[in-house]
Write a structure and sequence with these properties.
about 25% helix
Length: about 280
């Protein structure tokens, strides 16, 4: 089997967390995060609700701004010094069903071996009508090309780089409606200081053109499934008739007393009974 057909060997979440967090703090990682926050800001400002969950392989990187979110929820894969988030697996969340108003998957699908399980878990905790925001690496970009050209890719190039079309198909199977798809991170994946200094200009110029070759895509989807609430039938109360009360009259003549005389049947009088006696008496 060729190396192109094999799935990339994803690192363990405990090992990945410090590596990805360190790369996101680099100049190139900071330029990418700035572009992602610019794309997330108008969407988060329109999210209705209080509880927002961020599922990320680098939980120390806060993508939810305090002024936009009431209660932020984020889990770490394992405890280590400096970690202040609760520890849990993002594929098995300790949250109730339909308890979160919005879920942000920040490169979580890029580093999971079971994308369907992660999406089902995010769907379970999201309330009906809630928003699902997915930020992932775009394979149709200079960053995707850079991943293919690396013999032994390191973080972040060891991610899966899922296509946006495949992701949209998965969301439709889970009863999601894709509301919006945007692209960002149009800077080339180079560490040159002059290129990084022009990152904001790249975003402004190419975003106006609607260029779909950005380093990342952001998919905004809404959960359409509405829980069925059983409605109890409303039976009209009937009063129990009192014992010995008269039965209701159901005949047409009796129900219309004004027409009773005109529609009464003719009574034929019977002849009185007469005993027959023989003639010899």
């Amino acid at each position: 089997m060729s190396s192109h057909n094999r799935k990339p060997e994803l690192p363990d979440p405990v090992t990945l967390e410090p590596e990805l967090s360190a790369w996101l703090q680099s100049p190139l990682g900071q330029a990418l995060l700035d572009a992602q926050r610019q794309a997330l800001y108008p969407v988060l400002s329109r999210v209705f609700g209080y509880h927002v969950l961020q599922l990320s392989c680098a939980p120390q990187v806060d993508m939810l701004q305090d002024r936009l979110v009431g209660h932020k929820i984020c889990f770490a894969p394992a405890w280590r010094p400096g970690i202040n988030q609760p520890v849990a697996s993002i594929e098995s969340l300790p949250l109730e069903t339909d308890s979160v108003d919005a879920v942000l998957l920040h490169h979580a699908l890029d580093y999971t071996n079971d994308s369907h399980r992660l999406l089902r878990e995010a769907t379970r905790v999201l309330r009906p009508g809630g928003r699902l925001l997915i930020v992932g690496f775009n394979p149709v970009s200079l960053w995707g090309l850079s991943k293919l050209l690396r013999w032994r890719p390191r973080t972040p190039w060891n991610a899966r780089f899922l296509s946006r079309r495949r992701l949209s198909d998965w969301l439709s199977l889970l009863d999601f409606n894709v509301d919006k798809v945007t692209y960002g991170g149009f800077l080339p994946p180079l560490k040159h200081p002059r290129i990084l200094g022009k990152a904001a200009d790249f975003e402004r110029w190419l975003d106006k053109l609607g260029n779909p070759t950005g380093a990342f895509y952001m998919v905004v989807a809404s959960k359409q499934r509405v829980p069925l609430i059983p409605v109890a039938p409303r039976w009209r109360k009937m009063q129990r008739p009192a014992l010995g009360g008269p039965l209701p009259e159901t005949g047409r003549v009796a129900s219309q007393p004004g027409r009773a005389a005109g529609r009464a049947r003719k009574v034929v009088p019977l002849r009185p009974y007469r005993r027959h006696t023989p003639d010899h008496e």
